Amino acid sequence: MEWKHLTTVVDGNGFSIDGLNIWDYDWKATGEKINVKDPLYGQEYTMDIYEIANENVIVRFAAGEFSNCIWGIYVKD
């Protein structure tokens, strides 16, 4: 299964995955990493995989900064 670019978002701007705004939760690092390319410029990055959860939903995504406060968010395709 491949990881796909879901969005590029400014730090703190609301963005939800499966109904959970990622900025409203503590990101728990899984210890796993993925290698991706910035979809706009093609630069390669290594990003950590995180989980966030509430009582009903667990969301797993990869995230990393493309530049200062500009985050790339990836999910499994």
Question: What does it look like?
Answer:
It is a single chain. 0% of the residues lie in helices and 64% in strands. The mean pLDDT is 95. Strands 1-7-6-5-4 form a 5-stranded antiparallel sheet, with no helix packed on it. 9% of the residues are buried. With 77 residues, the chain is mostly beta strands. The protein is globular. The chain starts with a strand and ends with a strand.
Task: Give a topology summary.
Layout: E1 3-10, E2 16-17, E3 20-21, E4 28-37, E5 44-53, E6 58-67, E7 70-76
Antiparallel strand pairs: 1-7, 2-3, 4-5, 5-6, 6-7
Distance between the termini: 6 Å
Strand proportion, as a percent range, falls in: over 45%
Average pLDDT figure: 95
Biggest β-sheet: strands ordered side by side in the sheet: 1-7-6-5-4
State the major sheet: 5 strands, antiparallel
Summing up helix and strand content along with how strands pair, one would put the structural category as mainly beta
Number of domains: 1
Fraction of residues in H or I helices: under 10%
Give unreliable regions as ranges.
Answer: none
Brief digest:
By secondary structure, the chain is mainly β. 0% of the residues lie in helices and 64% in strands. Strand 2 (16-17) and strand 3 form a beta hairpin.
Question: What key attributes describe this structure?
Answer:
single chain, mainly beta, 5-stranded antiparallel beta sheet, two-stranded antiparallel sheet
